[in-house]
Amino acid sequence: MAASRNNVRKRGSTWTYYLYVTDGAGERRQKSKGGFATRKEAETARVEALAALSNGNWVQPDRLTVAEFLTDEWLPTQRPPTLEESTYASYARNIRLHVVPYVGAIRLQQLTPMDLNALYRTLLDSGRRPPGSPVRRHDPAVLDLIARLKGEGHTWQQVADTVAEQFPGLAGITRHAVASAHRRAQEPKPAPKDPGLSNRMVRYVHTIIHAALRDALRWNRVTRNVAAVATPPPQASTRRGRHTTWTGEQLGRFLDFVSDSPYLPAWLFLATCGSRRGEVLG
């Protein structure tokens, strides 16, 4: 008992335990772990560490953060052929945008289920990225001219040429630009988007974290996978609604919009044959 107490010491306001491990070279090295509020907590943790050491399940305490583990250790192992290129890119993007900014600074071994629950709640409430640059809005006189010329039956190229003539500041405007300006002018302003991510997206983020921590457990980086006991949005809440299709009027508007496109035959084929996108593209 005295030996055990000698291996637990107070450092500042917290307690630290010490133990010895044998490294790969056969040398005996001292390891420690601190931050315990009481001597009893440190002694209990030391007993558990000794038991794990004898069973071959001991995890060496370190200061590795969640961000360092995900970006420097885990993601490189997921590159193709482990994952498809698109899946790997999706994992990397979601870790960069939705995980690292929120829990990346936490030490990997100190990450808790409550940290993940707080992350999921934050993403649901306000996880959407701020919008990018606003869409360019043309002068109402330009939009009126575009609408009048198109109503008279001019092609988009003819409309673009006329707009460039009457408004020198728009010299070089393309037929695609005038068509897009006309389409936006006809559409109602969209309702403000929910600032949070969808249940489906947050659960996808959870799936990525769960997979990463499963490997961390397998690699003896952590003693348990805390994502396994966290609470992401339930699976039932992530089901997609029924798909909707365009009406004849909506399809007509789209085909009118792409009437000058070199891909018009492909759009017509896709709209009338019922084939999948991949089948149309060959």
Automatic annotation (TrEMBL):
GO terms for biological process, alphabetical: DNA integration
Entries under Gene3D superfamilies matching the protein: 1.10.150.130
Domain AP2-like integrase N-terminal: start-end pairs: 14-56
Keyword DNA-binding: yes
Keywords for the protein's UniProt record, in alphabetical order: DNA-binding
Keyword presence, NADP: no
Pfam families attached to this UniProt entry: Arm-DNA-bind_4 (PF14657), Phage_int_SAM_3 (PF14659)
UniProt domain Integrase SAM-like N-terminal: residue ranges: 70-122
Annotated region described as Disordered, given as residue ranges: 179-198
Bilayer-crossing regions: none
InterPro entries: AP2-like_int_N, DNA_brk_join_enz, Integrase_recombinase_N, Integrase_SAM-like_N
Any GO MF annotation of the entry: DNA binding
Origin superkingdom: Bacteria
The protein, known as: Core-binding (CB) domain-containing protein
Naturally occurring in which organism (per UniProt): Actinomarinicola tropica
